[in-house]
Amino acid sequence: MLMNQLVSHLLWADDLILLALDPVTLQKQLDSLSDFCSTWGVEINMAKTKLITFNSPSNTDTVPLNLCSKSVLSADSYCYLGIEIDKNGKFTLARNELKKKALRSLYSLKSTVNRNHLSFRALTTLFDSLIKPIALYGAPLWVPGTPIIRSLSKHSGQEHVDSNSSILKKIAQTECERIHTHFLKWALGVNRKASNTGVWGESGRYPIIYEGIMITLRYFNRVKGLNNNSLVSLAYQEQKRLKLDWFSSIESILKTDTCYSADHVSSYITLIKNKTNSTNSSMRNTPNTNITPNNFIIHHGIRKILPPQKLQPLPSERFSIIHIIKSFKKHFRDVWDSNLSISTKLSYYRIYKSSFTKEPYLDLVDNCKDRHNLTRLRISAHHLEIERGRYRNVPKDKRICPWCKLCLGSDIIENEHHLLNECDLYATNRSITSQKLSTARQSNITSITNTIHLLPVIKEEGGVTVEENAHFFQTLARFIT
Asked: Helix crossing, 245-254 with 147-155: angle to 10°?
């Protein structure tokens, strides 16, 4: 039943779902279907015909039903139009199945293409074209039920960001983002234990759950305007009337936009103001926002003061999808900055990583191995003792450089600074790189042995060309591993 209207079946091409509230009614429907098939010579694939009893205890015996003189087998779930429908009414199983499909496609992509001959941009284009549509298939159905949605809606828009927040961990644990980070680590050439914070920061790519939210909001906006007699519209009205999980979850997202809960006048002024700010229009084309919107009304161009209102005006339920997504992404950047500032694994990375953006060297360095080596060094996904000792529970001050210990008897921690500036093992490579660096950069950088800020020189400054920057990285990366 949807808004007191009986829905007995769903039909899409040759895929049919029969719906009933009791076994007797369902058997009558099966008998009618059997008669129709006998009359028109239609054959039914019984292997793909299943019976699902929603919200029933697992130990409940199902009533035997027959179709075309054959028993219909019961099942806990069924795949309809590419979405796995579970008897508990949740989409957890659907998300897991989509993850498996996307993962199979990703493995197929990895076995087909040679990443050594493709740029990072080309790899991400392949992912966005071939893998992401699978991972986000049917997003408007399952995204609202994703556990991370409540957390994002709760924290988005807050001025204070808790540095100990587990938001990033929750995002990384979503089924679609597991596929995304798996791909990014492969494309960047780092191991699976590499920091997700570093991987997101280097690539400048937001978690794809945000794109799933945008797709969901667009679908929601379209469903609101459908004809009231359509089944989709009836389902929407039922969700809204009963405040069911799907609608409630989306509404929690919409409430992050202040216009949604505000009255119509306040909402209108806010939307106009936001639109004006985003397009940098002249302020004389916008309404006077200094006037309190709750104490006046404009009638025939004349502003009239309203008496005090005892009743609260209805919310406008207006929202801007672009504004909501921008708010969510800003919150992600804030949490990313906070996590970067406290991460012990990325202590070297935060020395020169100041903002969430794609790093230019990913496009400047053509050599795949050089590019991978740079990424490994930047986000501490290398094999230096400072990182290897982490997984062997070796105290930080005991992660000694084996070469310096053996040859010099020095207990020096083998970290990125030691590798680039001090270790005698790389003295020859360091000297060669320093000479080439001085040639490429001329006088724009000091000697390699005098600065810890070697890798941050990735921005064009002092007239240095893109080719010179690329030459700098290709020269440097050869002695990182």
From this structure: 30
Cα separation, 256 vs 108, whole angstroms: 39
The Cα 237–Cα 139 span in angstroms is 20
Q: Please name which of 366, 399, 367 lies closest in space to residue 380, comparing C-alpha atoms.
A: 399
Residue whose tokens read 């600065």: 451
Per residue in 304-358, pLDDT tens? 666 665 556 677 788 889 999 999 999 999 999 999 999 989 988 988 888 999 9
CA-closest candidate to residue 334, choices 160, 214, 205: 160
Q: Which residues contact 218 (CB under 8 A, 6 or more apart)?
A: 321
The number of beta carbons lying within 10 Å of the beta carbon of residue 199 is 22
Whole-number Cα distances in Å, 111 to 106, 108, 232, 371, 449: 9, 5, 41, 20, 41
Spatial separation of the C-alpha atoms in residues 1 and 287, rounded to whole Å:
46
Separation between Cα atoms, residue 450 and residue 444, nearest integer Å: 14
Amino acid letter, 77: S
Give residue for tokens 């392949």: 126
Q: How much is the pTM? A: 0.82
pLDDT, one tens digit per residue, over 69-117 is 899 998 999 999 999 999 998 999 999 999 999 999 999 999 999 999 9
Rounded-to-integer distance, Cα 47 and Cα 65, Å: 15
Cα distance between residue 321 and residue 254, in whole Å: 9
Residues in the chain: 481
Torsion of CA 418, 422, 426, 432, to 10 degrees: 120
